[in-house]
Structure formats: C-alpha cells, structure tokens
Amino acid sequence: MPFDWSWLLWALPAAFALGWLASRLDLRQWRLEGRRAPRAYFRGLHHLLNEQQDQAIDAFVEAVRNDPDAAELYFALGGLFRRRGDYDRAVRVHEHLLARADLPAADRQRAQHALAHDFLKAGLLDRAEAAFTALLGTRYDTDARLALLHVYERGRDWSRAAEMAETLEGSAHGSFRLRRAHHLCEQAMQLQRQQRTTEALALLEGLVQRTPESARAWVALAELRQTLGQTEGALQALQALAQHAPAHLPLVAHALAQWSRALGKPHAAQARALLQTWASQHPPALDVTQALATLDDDPAHGRRRYVEHLRHEPSLVAANLWLAGVGLGDDEAEPLVRRALERACEPLKRYRCAACGFEARQYFWHCPGCQGWDTYPPRRVEEL
Fold it and tell me: Could you tell me which CATH class the domain 69-168 is placed in?
C-alpha cells in the first residue's frame, strides 16, 4: 500500500505548533518563577527590616525553594536561624551548602565560617574547634584564631589559650599580653591544686618579669609566697604591684596591712607610708582608708581617717565603719541600728562589671557574666 504523503504535510505544521506552544508555556513558567523568587526575597527583606524574623524565615525558605542554586539566600537563611537561636536548622543550612560540589572556594570558606559560628553559639565546643581549625590559613584566619581563643578559654584549656594569645600578639586586634598573663595565672592555680607549688612559683616569677603590668600576676605571686610562709617576699610583690599597676592597690590593701603587722612595726610603718603615698596621689579608696585605720596604733586616730574620707567622698560604708568604734548610748537599740546599717551597706561593697553590669561580692579577673577579662574596676560599687 503506497504511503500517503498528505499526512506528513499535516503532521509537520502540527508538530511545529505544539513545540512552539510548549516553549511558550515553559518560558511563561520560567518568568513566573523568576518573578516569584525575587518577590519572596524582597518580602523576606521587608520582614527582616521590621524585625519580624519568623515571617522573614518563611519568605526566605520559599525563595530558596524557587531558586535552590542561590547561595546568598542560604547564607541569609542560616544567619536568621542562628539569630533566632535555632542552631540545628542553621547547621543544616550551612552543611547543605558545604555538600554542594559546585560551590566556589570563596563561598565554601564562608559556609565553613558560618557553620563554625553555629557550633560555637550552640555550645558544641569540640565541633566548633574543628570547624575553626579548618579555617586557619584562609581569609578567615584571624577571626578563626580569635574564636579558637574563646573556645579554649571556655573549655579552660589554658595552655592552648596562652599559645593562641601569643600568636595573636601584634595583630590588628591589639595587644594580648594581659590576656595571656591571665592564662598563665590560671595555669599556676591548676599547678597549686595539684600540689606542684614549685612549678607554680617559677611560672609566676617568670610571668611578672615578662609582663610586669599584669596586676593579677603580682597578686597571685604574693598570695602563693604567703601560702609558702614567705611573708616578706609576699610584701615585696605587693610593693611591686603598687609600682607597676597602682590602680589595683585597693584590692590588696587589707592583705598589705595584715601581713606587714604580722612582721612587726618596721614593716607596718613601711606599709603605712606606701598607702599614704598612694592616697595622696589617687582619689579616696575605701579599702585603702580601712587598711590605714588598721595600721594605726591609736583607734581614735584610725577613726579620724574615716572622717577625713567622708569629707572628700560621702560614703555609707565609711560612716558605718566610723560608727563601729562609737557607743550609741542605748544598749537595746545599738545592735539593731548596727545590723540595719550593715545590711544597707552590703550592696555597696560589691564589685560591678563595666561591660555587662554583673555584680559580685568578690573581685573577678574574668567576668562570669560576659566572660570578659579585666572588666571589673578595682573599686566597689559605692566608689564608682
């Protein structure tokens, strides 16, 4: 049976028409999706500017679905998850980016950097350490070293923290000498707890020679020498503190008075002269006034020091200390009044972190609230 060529004449135009129609439908769908992706992106940006993080996340998720190859959308989405505290989802977003074989090297490092911060925020210090270590030698090298320093400090790995601080010395982020001194002081405390006092003493003596401006190093050395029965050596360390870090002398004024009195009048006179010289060159400090009153042999003269302190600086704590040597003339009311005054003075005797406002009765070199070093002024709340 001969082939009917008329069917071919009908089929070719029909196939052409169907192909043209299909291409138009695909083009329309592509344009529709193209419009939808930027619309979702801008809607997410609008929510983000209005601090509506949940709505912004939903919009960015939609944008990512419409354009799965847009790395910037993944970075924005991961950052939003981290800011909201949804660290598991932030980790998944950044791990998905790292799993892409077509991701450029710069974006891969950026994703690794974001993933490391996800782990750090989530408190997964071991995984954060591994992620930041992988960034050493990249354009995120300095930031990775700073983060690793924070990881080592949170993990109380003081030897590695000291090494990292030494490598960061001289970088664009300033000096790390005092921070490294804190790390070595923490190592000395660990050695003391392990009964390795000789090594701790050698560590601190070398530290004060290398970093004499570290107040904590002198304080730790003085306390260790006193523990070993070397009171004269402890006093020498406190005198060196007054020379190299005079602002911190109020922290050790009580110890200076107590240890010098234990060694006899010549040492007490020397300590009194040191404290008086300091008081003449600095604003009144309650701890120094109290230490001077302790060193006075005449109690009446010691009480007059509190009066002098009150002339320069009104202080409820100083007034309470002055009243401690005065009888109120009412045996029944006197203990009640003193108890009320002591209670009112307690909040004023605390130390307050200048960075986060965390208050504590004892002085901290490392703030428990914000984890900052040397953020506590060496004066109590009432004197600030």
Answer: mainly alpha
Residue 185 is assigned to a ligand binding site: no
Beta bridge pairs of residue 359: 352
Task: Pick the closest to residue 70 from 43, 100, 49 (CA basis).
Answer: 100
Q: Is 353 annotated as a binding residue?
A: yes
Distance CA 359, CA 376 (A): 9
Residue whose C-alpha is closest to residue 203's, from 221, 216, 215, 219: 221
What is the DSSP annotation of 338-357?
A: HHHHHHHHGGGG-EE-TTT-
Which residue ranges make up each domain of the chain?
69-168
The verdict on whether residue 345 carries a ligand-binding annotation is no
At 212-235, the pLDDT tens digits run 999 999 999 999 999 999 999 999
**Which two tokens mark 257?**
């008075």
Look at 11 and 191; give whichever has higher pLDDT: 191
Q: Is 370 annotated as a binding residue?
A: yes
**How many CB atoms neighbour CB 73 within 10 A?**
23
Q: Which of 4-8, 109-113, 171-175 has the highest mean pLDDT?
A: 109-113
Q: In this predicted structure, what is the pLDDT of residue 205?
A: 95
